[in-house]
Amino acid sequence: MQKIERKNLFTKKSFIILFIVSIAVLCTIFYFFYQNVNKNLKMGNNLSNKTNQEIEEYILNISSYEAQIQVSVESNKNRTEYKIKQSYSSPNIEKQTVEEPSNIKGLQTIYDGNKLTIYNTKLNLSKVYENYPYVTNHYLWLNSFIEDYKNAKSNNKNYKLYEENNQIIMEVILENSNPYASSKKLFIDKTSRHNC
Prior knowledge:
Elements: H1 2-43, H2 52-60, E1 64-74, E2 79-89, E3 93-100, E4 107-111, E5 116-120, E6 125-129, H3 142-154, E7 159-164, E8 167-173, E9 183-189
Antiparallel strand pairs: 1-2, 2-3, 3-4, 4-5, 5-6, 7-8, 8-9
């Protein structure tokens, strides 16, 4: 009878030891997992770890991008909101597709550095403008902003880089005769976890 009690006692001790070792192993695994995830979030290639100058340099060296932009156009009578998908590929391929409002959804503007094509995907109609240099001055294109900012920075005037409300703001003061546009600003959310 004592042998059976000793065997049960040995089994209980083995179970307790095994349980404690299992908990220790799980805690160790959890600790390393947590450290690795935390390290990747903090040390990753994201905006929150970069200086304003590093982010500025990154923006100025963009050679291609895709963006979803929201545009608000205000006149004396009304305000119209647009959602546009935009892409750019160096040296000069620019494309915009209107996603909203629904009455012009699918309208595409494609510019190749020389030729501007406006394409209505609903009606399968297009209009081509040859030798059309004016798109490069367009206020909705990131690459246009980048060129203006680079020129202002190389002349060491009419540009600003500052931070406000967890946003990095790159600004170009325009020297033109357009009474409706005196500057261009690019707002970059510094708390974003998007990669740079």
